[in-house]
Amino acid sequence: MPQNLFGLEGGPILGALFDLDGVLVDTAKYHYLAWKRLAAELGFYFTETDNERLKGVSRLRSLELLLEVGHCTMTEEEKVLAAEKKNAWYVEYLHTLDQGALLPGSREYLERLRAAGIKIALGSASKNAPLILERLKIASLFDAVIDGSLVSRAKPDPEVFLKGAEKLALAPRSCVVFEDSLAGIEAARAGGMRIIGVGRSENLPGAELYINSLHDLI
Ligand code: BG6
Ligand code: MG
Fold first, then answer.
1. Domain match, 105 and 193 both
2. Which domain holds residue 39?
3. Integer Cα distance of 116 and 123 in angstroms
4. Shared domain check, 61 and 142
């Protein structure tokens, strides 16, 4: 078994479920820039530290967290419009994305897993995930793509990863989730998957192994 591909002990791992933003691709900075711009319009400064809480969180929930930081209130209708505005700015940034936005080792590691017969799914909260995969020309490396438009419950609910495992026709316990957010780690734990944290253990308790980037596993 290609267990050494994951650096984990224990039972066989037949599938890999990847978060997108912050694991495969460096888009977190564009989310931040777009939220910061919205905050500036609302009259407050949104720091990178504030932004940490938004990672892995759905678009609307992110807006609500941002409004809490700025002590602002909005009607549900205003929230929808503000989230659309942020997304339009974010999508503008996405149109400048090129292969350089892939995080170290992403493509090589995906290719290596495929060559070893591991099934691969994306499990992302982002509704922009298909656009990003397309722009970075990595869409063909996935057996299944579950994005924010296919789930009704956001991370930390395990729905996105359970759907990914189901699409791969694998039991959750034989899949490993790669995540850089607390909400995502909690989702994977609730789903019964193995977990590799991309980041530091202090920020992401609950993973079996921590890496800086996928390059560490090549
Ligand atoms: C997650 C990001 O992957 O997707 C979050 O970590 C983001 O920051 C969420 O809010 C939703 O993304 P989108 O592209 O649908 O607004
Ligand atoms: Mg992420």
1. yes
2. 28-94
3. 21
4. no
Select from 21, 38, 128, 131 the residue to mutate for testing ligand 1; criterion: most ligand atoms less than 8 Å from CB.
21
The pLDDT tens digits for 28-82 are 889 999 999 999 999 999 999 999 888 888 899 999 999 999 999 999 999 999 9
* DSSP annotation string for the chain: --GGGTT--SS---EEEE--BTTTB--HHHHHHHHHHHHHHHT----HHHHHTTTT--HHHHHHHHHHHTT----HHHHHHHHHHHHHHHHHHHTT--GGGBPTTHHHHHHHHHHTT-EEEEE-S-TTHHHHHHHTT-GGG-SEEE-TTS-SS-TTSTHHHHHHHHHTT--GGGEEEEESSHHHHHHHHHHT-EEEEES-TTTSTT-SEEESSGGGG-
**Of the candidates 94, 126, 149, which is a domain's last residue?**
94
Among the listed residues 19, 50, 147, 180, the single catalytic one is 19
21 given a catalytic annotation = yes
Q: What is the pTM of this model?
A: 0.91
Same-domain pairing of 105 and 84:
no
Write down the pLDDT at residue 189: 97
